[in-house]
Recover the amino acids of this structure.
């Protein structure tokens, strides 16, 4: 895959150091300055290889979210808002939603044939035609060991099956992304 993984998995530490450099070296705290710097320099470290490792430990996920909260606190004129309102005002998702967004895009690409040679039968479609809502439902596998429930294939099936038919039936990736943005921005 071209990914190097070490035992430390210290993405939050690296991202936090970069954020500290931005805070010390940039005088402006406007949205137009901080948001592009965060998106280009910090967020890639927070989202590095999330489909591969996708932390299941609450402590690790909270560390990553803490770095993002630190970044959005730097933006002036929105200090009075809560963290969720700040994210909405800046047009950002929480990192948990970003991970889900990325996972669902990978599923869409796979089902549209983008990864045929990488895994012939990665997902199995639900056999019954009487599904309500989403007509492209996937079947959840059953495993005896709980550790398998954290695998990518099982993590995304419930979320995929919860999407509306208009999203999963999108003709192109761009259309799917736009519809997915709308679906994830509305609290369900």
């Amino acid at each position: 895959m071209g990914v190097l993984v070490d035992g430390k998995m210290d993405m939050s530490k690296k991202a936090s150091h970069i954020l500290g450099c931005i805070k010390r070296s940039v005088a402006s705290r406007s949205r137009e300055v901080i948001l592009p710097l965060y998106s280009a320099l910090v967020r890639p470290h927070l989202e590095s290889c999330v489909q591969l490792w996708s932390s299941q430990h609450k402590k690790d996920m909270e560390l990553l979210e803490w770095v993002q909260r630190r970044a959005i606190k730097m933006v002036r004129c929105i200090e009075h808002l809560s963290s969720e309102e700040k994210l909405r005002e800046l047009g950002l998702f929480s990192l948990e939603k970003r991970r889900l967004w990325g996972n669902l895009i990978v599923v869409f690409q796979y089902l549209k044939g983008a990864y045929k040679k990488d895994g012939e039968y990665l997902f199995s479609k639900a056999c019954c035609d009487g599904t309500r809502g989403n007509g492209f439902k996937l079947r959840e596998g059953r495993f005896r060991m709980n550790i398998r429930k954290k695998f990518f294939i099982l993590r995304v099936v419930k979320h995929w099956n919860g999407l509306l038919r208009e999203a999963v039936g999108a003709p192109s990736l761009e259309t799917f992304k736009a519809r997915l943005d709308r679906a994830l921005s509305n609290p369900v």
Summary: The chain has nine helices and no strands. The chain has two domains: 11-92, 99-185.
